[in-house]
Known about the structure:
By secondary structure, this protein is an alpha+beta fold.
Amino acid sequence: MFRKILIANRGEIAVRIMRTCREMGIQSVAVFSKIDRKSPFVYHADEAYPLGGITSQESYLQWNKILDIAARCGADAIHPGYGFLSENAEFAEAVEKAGFTFIGPSPEAIRLMGNKTAARKLMIAHHVPTVPGTEDAVRDIATAQKIAAEIGYPVLIKAAAGGGGKGMRLVEKDEEFKEAVEGAAREASAAFGDASVYIEKFVEEPRHIEFQILSDGQGKTIHLGERECSIQRRHQKVVEESPSALLDDALRKAMGQAAVRAAEACGYKGAGTIEFLVDKHRKFYFLEMNTRLQVEHPVTEMVTGLDLVEEQITIAAGHGMSRQKNISKFWGHAVECRLYAENPDNNFSPSPGTIAFLKAADGPGIREDSGVTQGSEISLYYDPMISKLIAWGSDRQQAIRRMMRALQEYEISGIHTTIPFLIKVMGHQAFQQGRFTTKFIEEYGDDLFTVDEATAETAAFISAVDFLEEKKRISVKAPDNGSDTAFKWKNLHRKNALRSR
Ligand code: MV4
């Protein structure tokens, strides 16, 4: 087994990985930017080394520095987390070349699934359903336009090197096709250094449902059920759950088998995710594969009892899956809410600042994977997601009720967060009935964004605190539970809760 793992990431996912390292008796190493010098993940690690730099580009993406530190501290392996270098085939290659183990799939599998047209081709060859479209990147516009007419409008133009919604264009009719392809190619070239684009039929109002897979690297691949990820905003997931309220056993089985075939097709090793779209006729289509641990992995952990980071580590070490006997049994229901440092009442504008007071939620069925603490400074340099709340219940209703209670219980001040918005999502009838698509937030915006009296009052209160802090350069004294400050927050959540019933 590994003796020491370097975590090439920051925030909540770095803490998450370090926790499993500690449980496994493995030393953990943090690397950090100037901004993150005092971040909780730095203190969670057994050792921590500065990368220098402020932006991601100057710090967490500097792989030569990271490899130097790995060599200097005697690490055996590198865990990339998600984002940053996690799906960079060249980095994975460089890690292995320098003599460390990359905790993830092979560079070949990352590269293959990173090319969306190559991935589609492979899926078609292995009878994994894909959305009707071109098998190759568009060569000449006239041919592509013919294909688009055959598929039938509306169609989507996607970048072959893209993913996650970057560089997509919707085309409603033939006359718009040429300009859209040219525009998409220009954007793709600027964003990914690769102008290749391809065409897919546009699936209207789909659900986004993904399957967690695990391959032991010794010929065995299993799936760990699905995650419902349809509730998202601008391609950022907001709420995820497992299982999906949409699937029945037959559909789950068919999609699960397709997911396993997909992973086997690319010679996968470790934990990965197969994303599907499901249309209103309950037909499913392969969308893309994510060759990393995902933000929303905890909901799968809650319903399977597994530790996916532990599985990643034992597989990477060549020991296969660690808890084979317990795998593939599912128990209960889990929901995850992502907490962002954003102001939902001002179009989700970023809300940097110092967390003046923080008392997180806990109690029955609640898990929090957080990257911050009271006193933490939230900068504009990295992802605004500061924490994830996960609720487990023996059924969906109990999980949602627990989540609602936890969101109400959560006390944070000094920055805006998406908590008031999440309370409205949890309280929404369509969500509670499991009847929603990827259009949920657009569709029900009026119910979810209305600034009610209580929210307005708190927003005013927070800006007053911010103002005082700024003006007098004093830090706000952390209120105790009986103080006015904490009381107002609690009050807000109660009012919201009543309203949303
Ligand atoms: C689609 C689609 C409809 N039809 N492809 C967005 C993220 C990227 N992974 C692919 N995406 C989509 N691809 C076809 N052929 C709709 C989306 C999409 C979406 C997918 C999942 C979750 C949220 C979404 C929001 C808008 C569009």
